[in-house]
Amino acid sequence: MQKFLNFCFEIEFYLKIAISCTIVQQVFYWLLHDIEPNFITEVLLYWLVGSISFYCIGIFIEKGIKSNDVLMDKLTARVKKVKKQQFPSFTLKGIITGEIKAFIAALIILYLAPEVHRGNSLILNLGWFLMRIVAADFCFYVSHWLWHRKSLQKIHLKHHEFRDSSSFVAGHKSILEYIIVTITDVLPIFIFGYDITQLCAWTVIGNAYNLEGHSSLSIFFIPSDFHDVHHTDFKGNYGIHGFWDRVFNTLNSPTKKQGIMFPVSWLENRIIKSSISLERATDSRE
Ligand SMILES: [Zn+2]
Ligand SMILES: [Zn+2]
């Protein structure tokens, strides 16, 4: 039963990503399908959607949710406490460098990948996004696992300057790590082509789960302290979520948290509670 629940727990994450991407894709399709944007408009759109969503979601989590004690109490996922760290403040130079990097990446990706139009079929989009998140999780797992080998750790140590974590730590990485993450993230579109509406949706949702994963909170996509454990212990939990870690036996058990709309965690909680009350009832009869 526990094995089955763990499997559902991982699949729930993939499904949430695929469904959310499909919904956001429909919005971009509705906005863009009459326009037929040219190459440079697509580059600007992809870059701006990525950057604006990154800052908006990060600020919403750090300044909005984290300033509300009731929400913090309900959503905090991190169990292992670590010494509070001062996170680096934003500087104009840092923001500009980051945006130049993101713009160049958008330009290269759209230049190299062939363009396709996949329309707005819900089933086809859902299938595409499901394939992409499972593939992206696998690619990230492999590269992240490699960066934790002694000889390659240099690439990744900048990201691990924080044992505690905060949303914007998601973007704190060396240039080489940034390039590898970007390539592994968009790998399928070099083979299958890009549809600008899908690409924009993927970026928005990617930013959302990445920022949430580093926020120490469990809001909507991340149902545990999975990545907090990785930052604190520096080993295990190399994937975006736990599926590939479970497959390859590198899972460093996270603590599940119910957050908002996590049916599997909710179900598991109910089962545990009812089995405890059943045991107590049996004990009291004996
Ligand atoms: Zn790491
Ligand atoms: Zn991280």
Structure description:
With 286 residues, the chain is mostly helical. It contains ten helices and no strands. The protein has helices at residues 2-32, 39-64, 69-75, 92-112, 122-147, 175-192, 196-213, 226-233, 243-247, 263-285. The longest helix has 31 residues, at 2-32. The radius of gyration is 20 Å and the shape is globular. The mean pLDDT is 90. It binds zinc ion (2 copies).
Q: What key phrases describe this protein's structure?
A:
286 residues, mainly alpha, 10 helices, binds zinc ion, 64% helix
- Indicate the mean pLDDT: 90
Number of contiguous helices: 10
Fraction in beta strands:
under 5%
Kindly provide the radius of gyration, computed on alpha-carbon positions and rounded to a whole number of angstroms: 20 Å
Q: What is the count of structural domains?
A: 1
What is the first-to-last residue Cα distance?
27 Å
The best one-word shape is: globular
Helix content: 55-70%
Low-pLDDT stretches are: none
Secondary structure class reads: mainly alpha
Helix/strand order, N-terminal first: HHHHHHHHHH
Q: What ligands does this structure carry?
A: zinc ion
Largest sheet: none
